[in-house]
Amino acid sequence: MWWLGLFFDRLALQIARCGALAPGDGAPLAICDRLCILDADAGARALGIVAGMKRAAALALAPALLLRERDAAREQAALERLAAWALQFTPSVSLQADLPFGEHDDTPAPCGLLLEVAASLRYFGGPEALLARLRQGLRALGYTARIGTAPTAAAAWLFARHRDGLSSTAADLPATLEALPSRLLARSRAQRETLDAIGAHRVGDLLALPRAGLARRCGPALLDELDRARGQQPESRRWFEAPARFEAEIELLARVDHAEALLFAARRLVDPLAAWLAARHGALRTFVLHAIHDRRDAREDTLLTVRLAGPSRDPERLLTLLRETLAVTRLPAPVHALRLRCEEVLAQPAASASLLPAPGAARENLARLIERLQARLGARGIQRLSLAADHRPEAAYRIEAAGVHPGARAAVVHGACEGIVATSGRAVDSLARSAEVPVAAGIPVAGLPRPLWLLHEPLAIGERDNRPCWRTPLTLLAGPERIEGGWWDAALVQRDYFVAEDETHALYWIYRERLAPEGGRGGWFVHGRFG
After folding, report:
1. Contacts of 73 (CB under 8 A, 6+ apart)
2. pLDDT for 196-219, tens place per residue?
3. Ramachandran region, residue 486 (left: φ > 0; alpha: ψ -120 to 50; beta: rest)
4. Given the DSSP bridges, would you call strands 507-513 and 524-529 parallel, antiparallel or unpaired?
């Protein structure tokens, strides 16, 4: 077994800092309870703010200091989000409680994780590669942690508590443990004065004492902790399970008036969402970001809905669409917090690696283009041609909003490509902007080819020497193809279609009305042109 211990020694401070609106936001920040300062960031410490200082004294010393009260429930929720995020590295993740504020608080609180990663090392390229990826991901989330590695969970946690990067193999585990300060042991803190009095400053000093006397003086729990750390006693742990739905909230360090300024803070929510989806082997088509307004504004949350063209859990893809949505959003009031919720999850197993391009890569790229344009122009701003079961060429298609569901596709002649039109609110005034003429789905047609360009309205042409004429006399090359229909919607057509050629060898798709409205012979019309 191989364990990673992650100790978030400044968890409350990092949770508050997640609400920053830009990288390196320099506002001094401190964590406090009702009376005292519990922790302070580098900016606050530079102003003389230290742990243990009274709140009033700290504000007198630094009037611009941002104070955030420690919230145990928020720390628990943040640690659970981190545990769900860590499930992408291993399914064996456990929460660890300890004393994150040292001597200033004697209440055990969640402040770390333990990960058993022996089965994951080969997949991630070895211990160094896994640790590098873990640290990079934590930095993106706005967290830093001391990380210790060891063959046992208890030893990994002691290493993380002592110093970042401390590691040990099974062979040198006893020697590494013996060099640790005895105060790191949770069960030794109640007897710290006693142990100091007898000179037991290190774990090795405790191990040199008679076990019976040590158990009588400090209790058997201390011996159990030592045995678990040395691997001489098994340790049962409760594994963390990802919740059925994702919900996370962060409080911003400042009120925000412009939607685009929310992107940096929103990333601290999107990255855990993507990791939660990976842990559940799922993806999403839609998620909603709640921009929470101050109660004084008496406004409901502004809902920013992001829709994808296809299921995905790629954080960069989600952030790109969110960026487009924020760019066209105007906030009705300042925002002081963000909440991200996702309930609908679709199954999406991990894709297998391949040296060759994936068969659906082109369609995936098109789907991403559609969803980005929709985020920028609106759901109706991107339209497509879809098939309709009708023999009449002008009724064999319909223009609709480009769908975002898999399987919905805009097919054209023979399904060769997709007809997508970015309208940005303007109507499509000519089918010459589209691709080839749609063919009614599932309806057999004659063998005549269909043209590349279809006129918006058929154009009446004349007749010369019993031949249709448009600019020059036309020669009929193929036909007729008879199309009759529309009696059900009062748009009856009765036409004979031909392929015709003019004197410059241009090819047209023309038809003759079989019956004129008065019952006489109909005239000739040009309906399309071949490219």
Report:
1. none
2. 788 888 888 888 888 888 888 888
3. left
4. antiparallel
